[in-house]
Amino acid sequence: MKKIYLLLFCISFAFAEPIDATLEVVKKFGNLPNILVQNTGKDYSQREYSQRIFKMLIADLKVTGHFATQESPEVVSSAMVLNFDEYRKSKIDLIARVNAEITKENLEARLQLYDANTGLLALSKEYRSANAESYPFLAHKMAIDINDYIKAPKVDWMERMVILSHYTKPGESEILTSDYTLTYKKQLISGGLNIFPKWANESQTAFYYTKYLDKPTLFKFDLTNGQNHKILESNGMLVASDVSSDSTKLLLTMAPDEQADIFLYDVPSKQITKLTKYSGIDVSGNFIEDEKRVMFISDRLGYPNVFAIPLSGEVSGAVEQMVYHGRNNNAASAYGNYIVYSSRETSDEFNRNTFNLYLVSTKSDFIRRLSANGVNQLPRFSKDGETIMYIKHEGNQSALGIIRLNYNKTLLFPLSGSTIQSMDW
Q1: pTM for the complete prediction?
Q2: Hey, what's the signal peptide range on this chain (predicted)?
């Protein structure tokens, strides 16, 4: 029981060609291109998935913050001639026509993007998936391609898979992959307590996770062949919190002597190096600054806060406090000179406390609150630093939250009837 209490304490402690000038995207100031999305899936075999991709694409384009999006209220014929003069009079810059159908082997979707200002077909692409239920990813790829056509800031994070653990009943959880909207979901690991999934590489072909057997055990699951490999086990707790860019090193939180510390695990040699030596609790290590340093959460001040040390490990005078706002900061993610962290702001003994997200700069006194209420935890920067994904808990269920930093846009995608334990993307 003592080991379980330590785990629970540490858990709570702890996403071309030259273009017409009218299509230029100016962040924060508008001048957004108007895009009209049309569904051309009129045939019976095309109706279901054409409509699904049509709706998902409209939602994706709105999420980018780079378009003024309109949807055609009726299904149109792909053979219908486009009157570009009428579109220009209506101030429509782009027309996206989409349809999809299931063939013998694949779900096949098509996108035709017309530029009303030039009167030309700008893009004509086909997208395929062997699994029809993964149609959201086809829509996400369409949105990425349309976004790239107008040379807007990248939104490639949209097609990344999310890996998450959620509780199914007391003491049990399963691991799913999903798209960022949680529309597509696939169960991968079930039975027992399966927690803290972490992608093992940039290509998202494998992930690490912790399973509670006789003691906490770290596994690596290979999505290409479905094989599960045991990595190591430890007393107390064991969590893989970050993976190096070349996939050869892991940052682990382990408590072999009932004291949580940060460890570096070399994947090829299986060598383990202890990085922190504090007598209290150090958890949730993350590589920062081109993997020269490690950021982590510690109770060195008498409450959880964010610190950093050189990758070589903790030595006298090497520990740097990274955040100076908040009195209980229990999770953090870094991108460049910015840190996003979750801070507890109430101390209610009988009700769920409020945790809000904050963005701070390590080079100035800049601080920005990103959430206003509720329980907002485990923030994660996208690869480009413009988007943050996090978990929001409300009632007895959770949602994936998306914050588009440069566009003052926040969206929530609930996992109905369940509580998310942790996620990675």
Answers
A1: 0.90
A2: 1-16
